[in-house]
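Researcher: I'd like a candidate sequence for this fold, 369 residues long. If you have to choose between options at a position, lean toward the conservative one.
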């Protein structure tokens, strides 16, 4: 009976994970394609301002859901926890800045290839910092996902030494952001995705508008608006912000439920799916190498999903043994952040070490390091 209950719970959790990841994928594809339509139809190319709008709308959406609809009870944070949230908002902003700067120094193809290495950076940090171990087949399943993106993005590869360093740093920052996003939701903070967005989005919006002024984008935007202002464009930008709110909520939820590594794998798969859809919607000519890369990446994503599901299934099966009931770990807490929390008293020292590592990473000093 216990074994049946555990497997029923496992199946229910699997459905939850699939729905969570699918919602993020759909929202992410929507905002990518809709943003491209805005650029194509209106020539509106102001990435920092657009991200600022995303944060403002996300902040308003989170506030409405929490304080008006009362979907989530906001958590009262201590001063150190507030500092951790501020640090996370800076990490969010810096990640955007580095990505935008690197795009100006390297070709789009080279940028996409470097970003495809985010899963490698993520798993490397888990292994080195948290001593997390992965079965060989997990390592092998990541290879076709990365290779597939590289083949799909094959094209004009131009870069400078500074551009290479900046893009490489951006890949690592993206990996760190994914890990920290997971930690603030399942670590000591345990913030709900809406609550996290309610804290982070207003801070990031302030940072982004300052950056917009400093970079000169605001002045370029004012010049553009003087010649191209329209009510239709305003509504298009605002609707883009609403989609961004959905992306942020589903992204935080999927990261909490599936883990940082799974999110980076899904990010690579989303990238090639976006390219595939672009071939159809925007009449872009695809080479046989591009199509083969899409196939390899999608096959790699399916392989990684199968490996992870099989590993979790084996964990559930082995935990159904009467002598092992005390060490069963709920599926949704078996996340890639490396904080392997168990109910076994023999793991008390590991609990303390994991909490220390989380607190260090979330602190301003740990972020700088």
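Model: Candidate sequence:
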């Amino acid at each position: 009976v216990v074994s049946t209950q555990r497997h029923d719970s496992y199946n229910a959790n699997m459905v939850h994970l699939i729905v969570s990841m699918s919602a993020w994928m759909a929202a992410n594809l929507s905002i990518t394609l809709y943003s491209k339509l805005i650029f194509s139809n209106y020539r509106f190319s102001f990435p920092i301002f657009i991200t600022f709008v995303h944060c403002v709308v996300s902040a308003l959406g989170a506030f409405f859901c929490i304080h008006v609809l009362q979907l989530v009870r906001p958590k009262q944070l201590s001063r150190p926890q507030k500092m951790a949230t501020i640090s996370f908002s800076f990490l969010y902003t810096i990640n955007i800045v580095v990505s935008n700067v690197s795009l100006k120094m390297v070709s789009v193809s080279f940028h996409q290839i470097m970003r495809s290495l985010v899963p490698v950076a993520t798993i490397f940090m888990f292994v080195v910092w948290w001593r997390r171990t992965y079965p060989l087949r997990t390592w092998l399943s990541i290879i076709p996902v990365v290779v597939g993106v590289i083949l799909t993005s094959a094209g004009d590869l131009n870069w400078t030494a500074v551009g290479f360093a900046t893009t490489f740093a951006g890949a690592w920052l993206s990996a760190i952001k994914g890990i920290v996003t997971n930690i603030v939701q399942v670590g000591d903070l345990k913030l709900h995705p809406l609550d996290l967005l309610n804290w982070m989005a207003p801070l990031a919006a302030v940072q982004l508008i300052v950056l917009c002024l400093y970079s000169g984008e605001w002045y370029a935007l004012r010049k553009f608006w003087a010649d191209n202002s329209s009510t239709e464009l305003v509504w298009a930008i605002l609707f883009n912000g609403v989609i961004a709110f959905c992306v942020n909520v589903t992204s935080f939820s999927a990261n909490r439920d599936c883990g940082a590594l799974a999110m980076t794998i899904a990010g690579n798969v989303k990238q090639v799916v976006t390219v595939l859809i672009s071939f159809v919607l925007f009449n872009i000519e695809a080479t046989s190498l591009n199509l083969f890369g899409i196939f390899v990446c999608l096959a790699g994503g399916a392989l990684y999903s199968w490996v992870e599901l099989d590993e979790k299934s084996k964990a559930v099966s082995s935990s159904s043994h009467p002598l092992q009931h005390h060490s069963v770990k709920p599926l949704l807490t078996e996340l890639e952040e490396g904080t392997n929390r168990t109910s076994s008293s023999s793991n008390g020292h590991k609990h303390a070490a994991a909490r220390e590592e989380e607190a260090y990473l979330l602190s301003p000093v740990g972020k700088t390091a």
